[in-house]
Amino acid sequence: MRHKISGRKLNRKTSHRIALLKNLAKSLIINEQIETTLPKAKDLRPFVEKILHSGKNNNLHSKRKVFSILRDNTLVNKVFDVLAKRYASRSGGYTRVLRSGFRYGDAAPKAIIELVDRDISAKGYIDKKRVEEQKKDTEQKAPEDKELNVDTQAKNKEKNLKQTDDRLPKTESSSSKEEKKDS
Fold this sequence. Notes:
Blueprint: H1 14-31, E1 33-37, H2 38-55, H3 60-70, H4 73-86, E2 95-102, E3 109-115, H5 125-167, H6 174-182
Antiparallel strand pairs: 1-3, 2-3
């Protein structure tokens, strides 16, 4: 009998299951909302709530404890600076699990797990920021490329004209043909 044994095995070994929960927790803290299967979301809830509750104790031991789970200083700072202030008056229940239908391939029940009172703009913020930086880089390179493209296009046209001139069979002019006939 499973007396006082909490959590699911999720058909994984212990190390794989812990790594899965850590990665899901990182994604949840970054985006503040993720979609996963219902059993994973139900197991992730207490895991994340313990991290967020540790974030309310702003001391070195708590920071090291959270860092040992998340392994990223930016996420640790977000937990202690942003999320701890957001949930200062809340004594628990930092996450919610919402069912979101069934997965197409195997009909597994899906769920959305999100932080309560989440920042809506946090979802996908890192990806949006990366895309904006790529656009800026391409715009800065674009004027230089345009100048190069104009020069290379002109050179290519000249080469094409020379190649077409070389390809055409060299015909004698009609006057030269007449001169040959007369002689």
